[in-house]
Each structure stands twice: as C-alpha cells, then as structure tokens.
C-alpha cells in the first residue's frame, strides 16, 4: 500500500506562501472574571509538504487551535492565513466553501456517511463544493490506500482501519492546502494505527500534502516532522524529527509543570 506521486504539484503547493499561517491568534471564551483564554497569541508558519503534530496536556488548547486554524471557529483576535489568503474575516458562506475545497479533515471517529458507498464518500467533498466529481482520481486514491476493491462497499462493511483509510482518501480528493487530522488513530489498535500514520506520512512525502495532526500519542506524533507542544494556550515547546521517547519525556515535563502551577499532580493528556 503506497501513496505514489500521481500528479504534478498544484500551483497552490508551489506558491511562495506557507500552507497555513497563524498571526497572534487569541481565542477566549466567556467574559469578565470567568473568561477562559484558550489561545493566548499563537504565531506559527506551516510550510507546504510538512507534517506537524500538536500535543499538550488536557485543556492546553489543542482543539481550539485546530478549530481556529481550520476555519471552524473564529479567533477572538489575530489572523489565520491559508495559502497566503486571510480567512479570519470571510463570511460564513465563503468560509464553508473554502473548507470544502481547500481543507481536508480526518477525525477520530472517521465520520463517513453510512448510506453512501466508499467511493461516494471519497467524492463527497467535491460534490459538496460543487466541483466535478473526479471518479478516476477517487479510484486512484482508493487504490493508494489499499482499498481498490472496496469502492462499492458501504462503510459499515469495513474495519475501523479501512474506514480511516477511506477518510484519508476523502481528505485528499480536492488536493487541499492542508489536511487537519484530529486524533486520527484514537480509535484504532496499534498495528492499524501504524498503517494509518504511514499513509499520512506518505501523503506528505509522495504527494506534497500538508498535514497537521492533534494527538495524545507520542508514537503517533513521532511520525511527524515536527511536534508543537501547547500549554495554557501558548506554544510552549517544539521537537524536530521527534522520537517517541523524547516526545513522551517532553509531555511529562509539561504536564508536571502545568500540574504544579494549578496545584495538582497530573493532568494526563
Ligand atoms: N466552548 C467553550 N466554552 C468555554 N470554555 C471552553 C470552550 N471550549 C474550550 N474551552 C476551554 O478552553 C480551554 C482549552 O480547551 P481545548 O478543548 O482547546 O483543550 P484541549 O487541549 O483540546 O483539551 P483535551 O486534550 O482535553 O481535549 C480549556 O480550558 C477549556 O475548558
């Protein structure tokens, strides 16, 4: 099972702009004394063709980060740029269109539509974006994730690992600027998780995809080029070319530091 280079890099991928950029992004919830500062000024550049993992103790702001970076939530202040274009101030309609055509999503729970065939699920982003449904491309992607023979099946007839591979093919169908993966291996056993992470890695290496993955798992994070660590809504640390032990050690240190600040022993991630 290998994701091969199927097409030249798109103009988007050759663009001088990074895939994603965050400038002084803050996100607060509530008002007054009860305000929660979930993100406290994130500055970040994610180049095309990079694989980034985002980790951090529970409540550190990972989900908020993902939601803001993917245009699912609006920062309280600051800017998010996708391929150099500012998305923070787009109206809801334009933001929805942009998410459908330029961002791919992979979720822990796969989120496939049970009444559609596997191939129809892969084509769904193009259908929703009102683009031509490229069946040949869907078949190529399904072959690349090892599911060439499964296009006519329903998701319910596949294993969890196979469903996540369909979700990866679906995330790549529009050749998006970036794929956001939220705990993509959280529901999978170790071996299947390893296969799914290998596919994400190959999407980056062979197809020039850009992947940002939130995970609690140091082994999963070690498949990335870089791990960013959030703590209390700030970028607290990073590791380049991480190995699982270094990631786990860094997480322990961060979790202990956050625990000490709030006077409890461990906020396990
Ligand atoms: N809708 C909301 N309203 C109020 N507070 C919120 C809301 N969403 C998140 N928060 C708070 O913002 C902070 C960051 O939450 P977030 O879910 O981004 O953290 P996380 O790192 O993803 O946590 P976990 O690993 O437990 O999923 C937390 O203190 C959380 O309680």
Automatic annotation (TrEMBL):
<dbReference type="InterPro" id="IPR015854">
    <property type="entry name" value="ABC_transpr_LolD-like"/>
</dbReference>
<dbReference type="InterPro" id="IPR027417">
    <property type="entry name" value="P-loop_NTPase"/>
</dbReference>
<keyword id="KW-0813">Transport</keyword>
<dbReference type="InterPro" id="IPR017871">
    <property type="entry name" value="ABC_transporter-like_CS"/>
</dbReference>
<feature type="domain" description="ABC transporter">
    <location>
        <begin position="20"/>
        <end position="257"/>
    </location>
</feature>
<protein>
    <submittedName>
        <fullName>ABC transporter ATP-binding protein</fullName>
    </submittedName>
</protein>
<dbReference type="InterPro" id="IPR017911">
    <property type="entry name" value="MacB-like_ATP-bd"/>
</dbReference>
<dbReference type="InterPro" id="IPR003439">
    <property type="entry name" value="ABC_transporter-like_ATP-bd"/>
</dbReference>
<dbReference type="Pfam" id="PF00005">
    <property type="entry name" value="ABC_tran"/>
</dbReference>
<dbReference type="InterPro" id="IPR003593">
    <property type="entry name" value="AAA+_ATPase"/>
</dbReference>
<keyword id="KW-0547">Nucleotide-binding</keyword>
<keyword id="KW-0067">ATP-binding</keyword>
<dbReference type="GO" id="GO:0005524">
    <property type="term" value="F:ATP binding"/>
</dbReference>
């Amino acid at each position: 099972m290998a994701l091969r280079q199927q097409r030249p890099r798109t103009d988007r991928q050759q663009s001088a702009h990074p895939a994603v950029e965050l400038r002084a992004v803050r996100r607060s919830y509530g008002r007054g004394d009860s305000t929660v500062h979930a993100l406290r000024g994130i500055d970040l550049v994610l180049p095309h063709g990079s694989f980034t993992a985002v980790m951090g103790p529970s409540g550190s702001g990972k989900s908020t980060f993902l939601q803001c970076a993917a245009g699912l939530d609006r920062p309280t202040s600051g800017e998010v740029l996708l391929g150099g274009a500012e998305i923070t101030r787009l109206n809801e309609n334009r933001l929805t269109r942009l998410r459908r055509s330029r961002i791919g999503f992979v979720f822990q729970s796969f989120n496939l539509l049970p009444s559609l065939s596997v191939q129809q699920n892969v084509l769904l982003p193009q259908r929703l974006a009102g683009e031509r449904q490229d069946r040949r491309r869907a078949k190529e992607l399904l072959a690349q994730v090892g599911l060439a023979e499964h296009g006519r099946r329903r998701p319910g007839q596949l294993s969890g690992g196979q469903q996540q591979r369909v979700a990866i093919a679906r995330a790549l169908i529009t050749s998006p600027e970036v794929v956001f993966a939220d705990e993509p291996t959280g529901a999978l056993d170790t071996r299947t998780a390893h296969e799914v992470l290998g596919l994400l890695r190959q999407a980056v290496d062979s197809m020039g995809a850009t992947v940002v993955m939130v995970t609690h798992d140091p082994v999963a994070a070690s498949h990335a080029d870089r791990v960013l660590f959030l703590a209390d809504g700030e970028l607290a640390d990073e590791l380049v070319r991480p190995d699982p032990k270094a990631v786990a050690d860094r997480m322990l240190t961060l979790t202990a530091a956050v625990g000490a600040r709030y006077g409890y022993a461990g906020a396990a991630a």
